[in-house]
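Let us practice reading a record.
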Amino acid sequence: MLYQFNELQKLALSPLRMAAQFHSQILRSPFNPMSETPQARTLAAAYDLFSETTQSHGKPDFGLDETIIDGKAVPIVEKIVHRLPFGQLKHFKRETDRSDPKVLVVAPMSGHFATLLRGTVEALLPDHDVYITDWRDAAAVPLSEGGFDLDDYIDYVREFLGVLGPDSHILAVCQPGVPVLAAVALMSEDEDPNVPKTMTLMGSPIDTRCNPTVPCKLAMDHPLKKFENTVIHTVPIGYPGTGRRVYPGFLQLGGFVSMNLDRHMDAHLKQFDHLVEGDGDSADKHRSFYSEYNAVMDLSAEYYLQTIETVFQKQSLAKGEMMYRKSRLVNTGAITKTALLTVEGELDDISGIGQTVAAHDLCSNLAKSKREHYEQEGVGHYGVFNGSKFKKFIAPRIGKFVRKHDTVS
């Protein structure tokens, strides 16, 4: 019923939102003699803010049309090079003859679309041939396509790496750190020729026992059945995935916001002030960020619940107990050829300090010459893969690490 109630709420707010947009336009019209008065500007700003905060957001576009290589603008064409039911492999093809390292960016399947990593991709494009996992909203996947769980995630990573072929590199942001590490371990043990040359794990919950954050404690302190009974719902009629059990995106968004409610309220108040003052640039930046942040997708129930249990409650990979398909132990000690870079943010309140660097202990047979760790001062979770410090400090470090090991067997 909660899913249906959310849909009814959207419908109920739609005419109010349209009315707010209409009144805002009238109040801001240059033909309105009252448009420059403080009262009109304040009221118009209120209408704008209401319209934006009640807006439904679909899947955003990456919008990366070009990059700069050797000081020149180079066009980019987005291409889907491989499709699977719950995700596709997207290639940002640069119109250049340069042969740069192939990097697979594995986006989180944790509520937001892969476009949350737009800044990550943008920073890598000048020096890398970039691909990304473009995950699909579970509500858009028909039941006939089957289910999707953590083991399927591992399979998708392996299959995507197979599309890139030998001599590729992989980069995981946040949640996919565990399935990516597991996939590379399985590939290494199988002597798969497509095992990546480097693996970069950024802000990943490899071992959530280290400095557990609020989300970690929430997952640890409640039985799995409680999550299943409270946040898992069935996709209603009207969607391709009707009947599929999911963790709805709107519930995830509510959780994201509630963890930092004061910060989000302050951001909206600042936007209101910018709108009143007529500071269009600042208001547009806020609008752009929240348009992206509020665009969420449903997750399949089996994937979400298995992740909660395996990663946060049992810490199976960190303890050397993770089973693939319930029959094969994931042996991270098998990783001997894939160089490992871990990146953490000093102020990360999602994956605490120590959780990502724990991957080095798990890769016990990996030579020291193939390991690096970097902690970025002054950034939280988002800053590990986006923003000015990522572009200035982290992205160049990743590029240097990738090139160092790109030609080394």
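A brief commentary: The two ends are 55 Å apart (CA to CA).
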